[in-house]
From TrEMBL:
The lineage of its organism: Eukaryota, Metazoa, Chordata, Craniata, Vertebrata. GO terms for molecular function: betaine-homocysteine S-methyltransferase activity; zinc ion binding. GO terms for biological process: L-methionine salvage; methylation. The keyword Metal-binding applies. Zn(2+) binds at residues 212, 294-295. Binds 1 zinc ion per subunit. GO terms for cellular component: cytosol. Involved in the regulation of homocysteine metabolism. This is Hcy-binding domain-containing protein. Coiled coil: none annotated.
Length: 379
């Protein structure tokens, strides 16, 4: 699409009942490809290696994404300063470069650009509403120079900070989505999901939900609790979900960052494309219409979302040209036992083996372990 004016906005699409497919994760995918440093997780690759960011954007677009998020995770000036990983590039330079890359790729299809802000070290350090809002305001101003389509507040584990971000971003006049990285137990201060949703909507959020930290079905459960809280309060908002691409049956409050495998040994927990089909359907049935992914979500995961909701959207994504639905292309295989797998029933009922006989199926998250130690000390 060659003209931004022809695009319908995010709220226009959601108000019409359409399914909006989000994109996937960036920091973890780019870390694995050699463009992001783990531990820092800062997005200077948007300036240093724009070709890498552009390519990942394109893969998500081809997989069916309707939204391309700016690669601006942890791009507040305080985070960049603390990381010490970025000394010759400013946050403004990263924000503007990321906007240009996202818009360039979005213009290759019918996609929107979401300007993304995430939690700030300042919140935990000073707990100053004035200081935190000033950081969000600075980022917002960078995005407005590039006229992004809407904002997303993401990866925030305290609803209070998310509310402050929403209050700032709403002054732009652009739609605002707010996603918390929380469990069904609530945020890090123990505020239940339902109350979190109510506070976000009262602050002005048009779209609310969760992202990252926990696996898809756990996140669906959390969004259901948010939906119930809104209904009880007589409030309305669109629902969105962009979960973690790894299995986290522990369902701990701290999420996957508390798992012993984080961040360099998560591969055996990876979600399959067939898991994603189930997730997308569960999300849709729960009334969620903005369905995407976060860390661990590769382009083929986004394609799986698009394929699962193809009937509702009325089309398949370009990437499905190279993928037989439910393994249909395996019918051409020379081996009969592989040909026998060219059916939906096989993949829906498969219990994948890890190939690691001495490994446990679950772990003791660090946050749970620390709680156990505290209990023992108190006893």
């Amino acid at each position: 699409m060659d003209s931004k004016e022809k695009r319908r906005g995010i709220l226009e699409r959601l108000n019409a009942g359409e399914v909006v497919v989000g994109d996937g994760g960036y920091v973890m995918q780019l870390e694995r490809r050699g463009y992001v440093k783990a531990g820092h997780w800062t997005p200077e690759a948007a300036v240093e290696h724009p070709e890498a960011v552009r390519q990942l954007h394109r893969e998500f677009l081809r997989a069916g994404a309707n939204v391309i998020q700016t690669f601006t995770f942890y791009c507040s000036e305080d985070k960049l300063e603390i990381s010490g990983n970025v000394t010759n590039i400013t946050g403004a330079q990263i924000n503007e470069a990321a906007c240009d890359l996202a818009r360039e790729v979005a213009n290759e299809g019918d996609a929107l650009v979401a300007g993304c802000v995430s939690k700030t070290p300042c919140y935990v350090k000073s707990h100053s509403e004035t200081e935190v809002k000033a950081i969000f305001k600075k980022q917002m101003d960078d995005f407005l120079k590039k006229d992004i389509d809407f904002f997303i507040v993401e990866f925030v584990d305290h609803v209070e900070e998310a509310v402050w971000a929403v209050e700032v971003l709403k002054t732009s006049g652009k739609p605002v989505g707010a996603t918390l990285c929380i469990s069904p137990h609530g945020d890090m201060h123990g505020v239940p999901p339902g109350q979190c949703a109510v506070r976000l909507v009262k602050a002005g959020a048009d779209i609310v939900g969760v992202n990252c930290h926990l696996d898809p079905l756990t996140c669906v459960q959390t969004v259901k609790l948010m939906k119930a809280g809104l209904e009880k309060a007589g409030l309305k908002a669109h629902l969105m979900i962009q979960p973690l691409g790894f299995h986290t049956p522990e369902r701990n409050i701290g999420g996957y960052t508390s798992l012993p495998e984080y961040p360099f040994a998560l591969e055996t927990r990876a979600i399959t494309r067939w898991d994603i089909h189930k997730y997308a359907r569960e999300a849709y049935n729960a009334g969620i219409r903005y369905i995407g992914g976060c860390c661990g979500f590769e382009p083929y995961h986004i394609r799986a979302i698009a394929e699962e909701v193809a009937a509702e959207r009325g089309f398949l994504p370009p990437a499905s040209e190279k993928h037989g639905l439910w393994g249909a292309a395996l019918e051409m295989h020379t081996k009969p036992w592989v040909r026998a797998r060219a059916r939906r029933e096989y993949w829906e009922n498969l219990l994948p083996a890890s190939g690691r006989p001495k490994c446990p199926s679950m772990a003791t998250p660090a946050d749970d372990y620390e709680k156990q130690l505290e209990t023992k000390i108190q006893m």
